[in-house]
Design a protein that fits this description.
Helix content is 67%, strand content 2%. It is mostly helical.
Length: 166
């Protein structure tokens, strides 16, 4: 038995005869698969899911104890998640109330210190002035004179290309 490229001759002969006889058909099949691969795979996944659901329904339809135990496990998991959610909600509410009480205490301290919580220039305004040091004191955005040339729109012309008309 002779070998061609490490493949037995009868296998090589069979493969080449298939390619010679049906090569263009195989080539066309590969091209079509590449073009419609997404649709083919989506249809396969849909078929597979439908088949799995049918097998699942058949399995649980036959064994009612299995169905009951599964439903009990689902309910237990739901109750567990509900308890965890209620604990987290209670903790978040407690933290929110603490923040509100802290704000009220700060407001009461500001009233005691300044006499009014909305007075400007008090001790609490020093914290806001440190954040605005980067702005120029003479900056007036609506005055029109910002110190730079700024952007000016080009003049409108009756010509579409922007050149002068004759």
């Amino acid at each position: 038995m002779t070998k061609l490229l490490g493949i037995p001759f009868f296998i090589w002969n069979f493969v080449t005869s298939i390619l010679v006889s049906y090569g263009w058909y195989l080539f066309l099949l590969v091209i079509l698969y590449g073009a419609f691969r997404h649709k083919i795979e989506a249809a396969y996944i849909k078929w597979r899911r439908r088949r799995d659901e049918f097998e699942y329904a058949a399995k649980y339809h036959k064994d009612s104890d299995l169905t009951r135990s599964r439903m009990e496990a689902v309910m237990a998991a739901r109750e567990k998640f509900q308890r965890e959610h209620e604990l987290k909600a209670a903790e978040a509410e407690r933290k929110r109330l603490e923040r509100e009480e802290k704000k009220k205490a700060e407001l009461a301290a500001a009233i005691q210190e300044n006499g009014s919580p909305f007075r400007l220039g008090g001790a609490s305004s020093s914290s806001t002035s440190s954040s605005s040091k980067g702005l120029r004191a003479e900056y007036f955005p609506l005055s029109g004179d910002t110190g730079s040339g700024g952007y000016k729109a080009p003049k409108k012309s009756c010509c579409k290309k922007g050149g002068g008309c004759g």
